[in-house]
Amino acid sequence: MKLVRFNQPDPYFPNTFSGMLDKFFNENMGSTLNQFNPAVDISEDDSSYEIQLAVPGIQKKDFKVELVDGKLTISGERKMEEKKEGKNYHSVETQYGSFSKSFFVPDDIKVEEVGATYEDGLLKVHLPKSEKKVVKAAIEVK
């Protein structure tokens, strides 16, 4: 007996509309596109912005994080492990390939203090805000 994902009784002829969509997007699109789209969370508090990407299975060295002219770009690649002798795959649902996400960041960040950490499959990019400059001036009406 083998361990397989429960799907349709006949994978070549899905018996439901949902099954047809699942087959089309998982098999046709997945095999032609060599990229994946990791989930992103963006948060803000009084002192900083934070961007989190869910990207398990990637090593730190496989990420590239750049901030150029107010555009933050995070890219990387998740590589499929080499197939080993004696190991037969019955189902592969994990997405592999390259990804790239870009964000326009506000002008009020401290560029020199931007940092990134990767732990437990989450890449966190921390963007500290600069002190708000309050300019107040009395304007004479003429």
Walk me through what this model shows:
With 142 residues, the protein is mainly β. The protein has 2 domains: 1-33, no CATH class; 38-81 and 93-128, Immunoglobulin-like (Sandwich). 11% of the residues lie in helices and 32% in strands. The protein contains 1 helix and 7 strands, in the order αβββββββ. It has one helix at 17-32, and strands spanning 40-44, 48-54, 63-68, 71-78, 97-104, 115-119, 122-128. The chain has a 4-stranded antiparallel β-sheet, with no helix packed on it. Strands 3-4-5 form a 3-stranded antiparallel β-sheet, with no helix packed on it. β3 and β4 (71-78) form a beta hairpin. The termini are far apart. The model is unreliable at 1-9 and 28-33 (pLDDT under 50). InterPro entries: A-crystallin/Hsp20_dom (IPR002068), HSP20-like_chaperone (IPR008978), Small_HSP (IPR031107). Residues 31-142 form the SHSP domain. This is HSP20 family protein.
